[in-house]
Amino acid sequence: MPGEWELAMKSEDLLEDLARKTEIPTFPSVVAQLQTALNEDEPSLDEVATLVSEDPGIASRVVKLASSAIYNPMGAQLDSVQVAVMRVGLLQLRDIVTAAAVVSAFDGHADAALTRRVWLHSFTSGIAAGLLASRCKGVPVQTPQSNPYFLAGLMHDIGILIVAPILGDRMQTLLDESIATELPVHELEQEELGFSHADAGAALVTSWGLPDAVIEIARHHHQPERAPESIRGSVEVIHVADWLADRQGYGWGELGGSLCDDAWDRLGVPWDEVDALIEEFDRCAAESARMLASLNVRR
Known about the structure:
This protein is 65% helix and 0% strand. It is mostly helical. Helix 2 packs antiparallel against helix 3 (45-53).
């Protein structure tokens, strides 16, 4: 298995190749600035709010996301970034700002219908992954402080939005071929391009300077057995959440790939809890759709 240095070099080379084939969205500077501010010993709520407010488009989306039931279950009125920061707290704010910034960065980048589908799947997977992790009874699943499940879920399929413009009309051909051959789309991408959306996503989030766990989840979410042992539990949570979201119609269906039985077994989620999990996924998807509608990303 390649080491971290080899994977980093591979991602850098791939990103250069991707940049020759399609436009690569730049990571909004507000996120990097926010991360720097949050790394201070005692970050100031006022300073953080002022920083986010400097980008009006992202600030508006942050307030809308913070107002969602996921972050604001009591339905308190949030009419400014300052109020939103106080309501959700600094750690959750980072996830909200990142989500708002990434959605903004990909506005108009790929086909609108495909983009909506990717975001619905990713938001649903990220929200539901936290619920799934709470049910895990086998392998201890630790959420690295720098990698909340929501952020990891948001980013795990982002490579699709890079691969799709490169493939153009061929993307639909691959989807049809996947149905006919029962091969997962990521395997057909590998045959067609020499890399998959998982590789492209890992290269992108590496260039954006996101936490290593987010990078490894993007790279290995279809093959969790290849993930480093230190974060395999987190990769398995996203893998199972991804698979369940697909099967419930919030993604790619059978095209998304198969479930790694070892991942399910290691997480220790009883099969008799599947029905309850599915109900939770439906609620997560409904909330994801509302969140995306608030960002003007409609299903």
